[in-house]
Amino acid sequence: MDSLWHMHNFDLYSILCPTKINNYFKNNGLMFKKGEVIYFPEDEEQKIYLVSKGKVKLCKYNQDGEEIVKLILSKGEIFGEKILLGQQKRDEYAIAEGDNTALCLLSIEKMRNLMRDNEQFGLYIYKLIGLRIKKIERRLEILVCKDADERLIEFIKDIFDDEFSDGNTVKHHYSQNDISKLIGTSRETVSKLMSKYKKLDILDYTRSSITLKNKTNLLQMLDTE
């Protein structure tokens, strides 16, 4: 667990987007307005991105034109990293979700050099890719198999698991609108469910943190659904 904590606390932002270096962002950065597409499926550009400001959503559209959001990323998180596994073309949309979203751009050659020169950093990146793939697969399965109540509980559970948290409170960057997109329901439904959990004295939700008051009862709700 100590090694997991150490890897989890890698500061990707300072490594991949060193803003203290003069003109770094000017030469290696991109700006997007909310709703602008960063890349499309089938794009072949061999670049990796890191969120410097704002948010980015990774999504697909099904045959009915409905948006399926895979991930919502904030400052310090990378995306487009599957090219490190040999991916030749993008398989998703990357769209700016926050106003004035700023991204740092990194070539695959530079990333591989960083990973080669720092074995622990390279291990972290590959572990991140593997965990992210599993997380997306699980989320898509949950979208198909569970109702909104179950999906929200699974989402909350995942946040605590992602943070390797043994405590009762975790920090997060998800608005209720973000959560609704990730679990495939409306913002109003998320708001009602969060209010229900609060009345049951199970959790407290704010824009920046979630506190579990009774984790056992939360998981029991999932088991009995």
What is the correct CATH architecture of the largest domain? Sandwich
Structural class: alpha+beta
Report the C-alpha radius of gyration, rounded. 18 Å
The helix-strand sequence is: HHHEEEEEEEEHHHEHHEEH
What is the mean pLDDT?
A: 84
CATH class of the largest domain: Mainly Beta
Which topology of the largest domain does CATH recognise?
Jelly Rolls
Cα(first) to Cα(last) distance is: 31 Å
* CATH H-tier superfamily of the largest domain: Jelly Rolls
Strand tally is 11
Profile the largest sheet.
4 strands, antiparallel
Beta-strand content estimate: 15-25%
Give the neighbour order of strands across the main sheet. Answer: 1-8-3-6
Number of helical elements: 9
How many domains?
2
Task: Provide the low-confidence segments as ranges.
Answer: 1-7
Question: Key features?
Answer:
225 residues, Jelly Rolls, Arc Repressor Mutant, subunit A, 2 domains, 4-stranded antiparallel β-sheet, 9 helices, disordered N terminus, WH_DNA-bd_sf, DNA-binding, transcription regulation, Env_Response_Regulators
